[in-house]
Every structure is written in structure tokens, then in C-alpha cells.
Amino acid sequence: MSIGNAENAPHIGVLPRGLLGTIADVHGVTVGHCTLDEGPVQTGVTVIRPHRGDPFRDKVPAAVSVINGFGKSIGLVQVEELGVLETPIALTNTFGVAALAQAQIRAAIKVNPRIGREWSTVNPLVFECNDGYLNDIQALAVGEPHYNAACAAASADVAGGSVGAGRGMSCFDLKGGIGNASRVADISGRSYSVGALVLANFGRLPMLTIDGVPLGRVLAERVSQAAATAGKPEQGSIIMIVATDAPLDSRQLKRLSLRAAAGLARTGSVYGHGSGDIALAFSTAYTVPHDADIVALPPLLAHARLDPLFRACSDSVEQAIVDALWSATSVTGRDGHRRLSLHDTAADLAQLLKQSP
């Protein structure tokens, strides 16, 4: 298995990837990052926009699955109840959730001054992982300007690794962060795209499995970390955002979001006690107007035809986690704490092997 840049990562499964190999292969989806790289402050914001319009006026169907709920996200209750998104999706560190929620509210009010007055309030949607090992999380460095910058930077050219919300994240005791992938599924002769973006911040090195290969166990044994990490519980979190252009309603998207857990499990996660593992799925096939009396839905796929999308979801999530590891660069942050990238760890391993008798 070659370890280097993201292009060298193994392809998970048999379904083809999309043209870009990112969540932006789902038409209309864009992603923006704002990265804070300032000594002990190693954090940031990532924003996923479901379309280029106003998500409050033109909502998209969505659903969320909480695999393990050790997390401090905001907005999940209303998504579960109403089955739509009203803002872009924001990702950041645990202590940045409140600031980004306020930023989302201000941004929505600026475009729609009737929110909270003649109209209902807006549901901000922010997900988080704890980057406190590398980042001085107590500095409360993330704020409204960083959310706005990430929104302004949103494009179909999606960066991954140690960027945006992924800047300070760790994964399998290595450098984690933002990962992307996509798959194309065929249903009755028509192709549909499924894309995944993950914020990967979970796992212990001996657990790491890539495309069925116990790579983490080999690395841990070679660098003498197995004894140090094997007894520690899995902790951290992962946020899995899944997008598709297939026409699905919120109930079907709930079923799709649950399949993200299959991709997560195949990398070695057991959804540990201290892990916040959350998946959200949305469709760009249609929008739900805010002030409509009647909502006209397109013909939806039958439940019995969803298996190819389920496979595309699980493969995309697994691939996105692999991409986060392959794309990340090593980072030194708070109190000299350092996380080596998978690439640098493999280079160190190669050097150790050269020195072995």
C-alpha cells in the first residue's frame, strides 16, 4: 500500500468516484474553509452550502442520525422534526459552536429581516469535534468573522486535511481533519451522485483499518506505540456530512445517513463512549420554499431501490476518512503537542526499518 498524497490512497469498493472525488460532485454543493494557524491556536471553520441560493428561503430536505451522542452540536432537534436545512452547515471546534450559531443567525437576518418577526426564527446548524490536544480551545478563537470568511470562500474546489475545522483534529493518534469522497450509483439506468465530507477526530492507532488492511496495528507495533495506546479508550468524534442529487424525502435521507456508520466501522471505529459520531444527509434534487402553502415534490425513488445509494454512502464515508488521513499535514500546536500525518509517520517507519538489523 503506497502512502503519499491523496491521489495515492486506495479506492474503496467497486463503485466509481465522481469527477472531483469530493462532496462537490453533487451539483450545487460548495465548501469553504477558514483556517487559524497561530502558534497554540490551531483550529478553524468549515462551511458546506447545499446550493448557491438562500437556504432559508429555499430549504433542502435533510435528516440526521446520532450514532453516539457525546457531542455539543446545535440545531439537530429541528432537523429531526421538520426534515429540512435552513442555513449552511458549519463545522468547528467544541467551544466555537455558540459563536458560529450566532453568526449563522446574523447572516440569515441580514438577508431576511423578517426572520424572528413576521416569520419564524431560523435554525442554526453547527457541528463540532474537540481539537483541544493541538488547539488552545480555551482561547475561544473562533468567531463570526471566521464563519463569514468560510462562507465567502465556498467553492467546488474543496481542500482537505489540516484545513478549516480540521486544522487541529486528530484521527487514530495521527493528524486527522477534513476528508472528501464521492461515488456514482446506478439505479434503473440513471446515475446519481453521493458525496461525503467528514471531520475526522477519533480512534486509536492500533484500530486503524484501511480497505480491510490492519495498517494501524502494523504502524503501532513498528513504532512501539501499541502498548501505549491499546489500553486507552477510543475517544474523539467524527461528523459525517452526506449529500446526494437523488430525489429522496427526509425519511429516506434518515435511512441513508445511518449507512454512514457502516463506512465508519470499516475503518476500525467502535463508536466509543466518549465519541460524538453524527451523520447528516441532504438532497439537492429539490427545494422546499419557506412561504409555500403547498410543496410540490418530484417523483421520489422507491425505498426498495435505495441499496445502491446505501453502498455509495458507506463507501464514500470510508473513503473520506482515508482521504482525511492521506491529505493531512503534520501540525504542532498547544504546549508543543504534535500530530504526525500518516505520510510522515510512514516515512519515519521506513527510516526505522532501514536502521533495523
Automatic annotation (TrEMBL):
Can the keyword Hydrolase be found in this entry's annotation? Answer: yes
Check the record and name the SUPFAM superfamilies matching this protein: DmpA/ArgJ-like
* Kinase listed as a keyword: no
- Which InterPro entries does this UniProt record tie to the protein? ArgJ-like_dom_sf (IPR016117), Peptidase_S58_DmpA (IPR005321)
Query: Which spans are transmembrane here?
Result: none
- Give any GO molecular function from the UniProt entry: aminopeptidase activity
Q: Which Gene3D superfamilies match?
A: L-amino peptidase D-ALA esterase/amidase
Going by the UniProt record, its keywords in alphabetical order are:
Aminopeptidase, Hydrolase, Protease
- Pfam families hit by this protein: Peptidase_S58 (PF03576)
Record-stated family: Belongs to the peptidase S58 family.
Task: From the Swiss-Prot or TrEMBL record, give the protein name.
Answer: Aminopeptidase
- Which source organism does the UniProt entry give? Paraburkholderia lacunae
